[in-house]
Amino acid sequence: MLWVGQFGIIDGQPREDSPWVGVFAESDRADPEEAMDLFVLVEPARPESEDACRELASTIGAKFRERRLSLSGGILRGLEAAHEELREWNRKSLKEHRAGAGVSCLALRGGACYLGQVAPAACVILRAGTVVRLAPELPDAAEPLGLHEEFWPDLSQHELSEGDRLLLLSPGLSEALSDEELGEALALEPDETLPALYRKAKGLDRCAALLVALLETR
User: Fold this and answer.
1) How does pLDDT run across 6-65, given as a tens digit for each residue?
2) Which H, E and C letters describe the chain, residue by residue?
3) Could you tell me what percent of the chain has a pLDDT over 90?
4) Phi first, then psi: what are they for 168, rounded to 5°?
5) What percent of the chain has pLDDT over 70?
6) Whole-prediction pTM value?
7) Dihedral angle at the C-alpha atoms of 23, 15, 133, 184, nearest 10 degrees?
8) What would the pLDDT profile of 55-106 be if each residue is shown by its tens digit?
C-alpha cells in the first residue's frame, strides 16, 4: 500500500500542494498489480521558466496514460511531450525568456519501479535504513528540457520493499539537507516526514517535495 503526500513553498509561502508536482495514481483499479502509478516533480531551470512549466506535470501525466506502455516507455513518452511543449514556447519567445525544466518521474506497477530524470532534478530513496541520492548522470540528461534540440532521460530501475521511502524534491531543497537530516526525516512515520522536511525548508523561497512511502503490512 502506498502513502503519498506533498508540500510546496511559493514566494516563501507554504502550500499543501505545488504547481510543480503531479500525482497520477490508479489505486481504484480492480487488480492492484495492473495499476500504473506516476509521480512527477518539475523544476523550472530559471526564474523566467516558471509560467511555462506550470502545466508540464499534467502534460507528462496525460501522455503517460495515453497508452499502457512499459513504465520506462511511458516515462519517455511523457518527457518527450514536455520537451516539445517547452520547445514550442521557446520558438515564440524572446531569447531572454526561453524556458527550460528539469523533471523527476517515478513510475510504479506491482513490484516494478522506474525513475526517469532530466537535470536539474533530485530524488532520495530510503532503503533498509540507507539514504541513496539519485540525480541525472548521463550527458544527454544533463541539460534541461526545452533548451536543446534533443535529450535522453537518465532511466534507472529499483527494487523496493515494504517500509522503503521515495522522495522527489527540488534540487535546492536536496542541497540544503544532509544525508543525516534526510535519513532522520524519512525514518519517521510518513505523516511526520513532510512536516520535518518543511521545517528544514522554511528559509527557501521556492521548492517542492513529494513523498511516496511503501507502508508495511500490519
Assistant:
1) 999 999 999 998 999 999 998 655 566 678 999 999 999 988 899 999 999 999 999 999
2) CEEEEEEEEECCEEECCCCCEEEECCCCCCCHHHCCEEEEEEEECCHHHHHHHCCHHHHHHHHHHHCCCCHHHHHHHHHHHHHHHHHHHHHCCCHHHCCCEEEEEEEEECCEEEEEEECCCEEEEEECCEEEEECCCCHHHCCCECCCCCCCCEEEECCCCCCCEEEEECHHHHHHCCHHHHHHHHCCCHHHHHHHHHHHHCCCCCEEEEEEEECCCC
3) 80
4) -90, 130
5) 96
6) 0.95
7) -120
8) 999 999 999 998 877 999 999 999 999 999 999 999 999 988 899 999 999 9
Strands 37-44 and 21-24 turn out to be antiparallel
Residue 217 has pLDDT above 80, yes or no: no
First to last CA, the chain: 11
**Residue 159 grid coordinates:** 527494487
Place of cell 513510475: 107
What's the gap between Cα 212 and its chain centre? Answer: 10
Domains in the chain: ranges and CATH: 2-214 (3.60.40.10)
* Residue 86 CB contacts under 8 Å (≥ 6 apart), including other chains: 52, 53, 56, 99, 100, 101, 145, 146, 147
Q: Measure the CA–CA gap between 96 and 75, rounded to whole angstroms.
A: 29
Q: For residue 132, is pLDDT > 60? A: yes
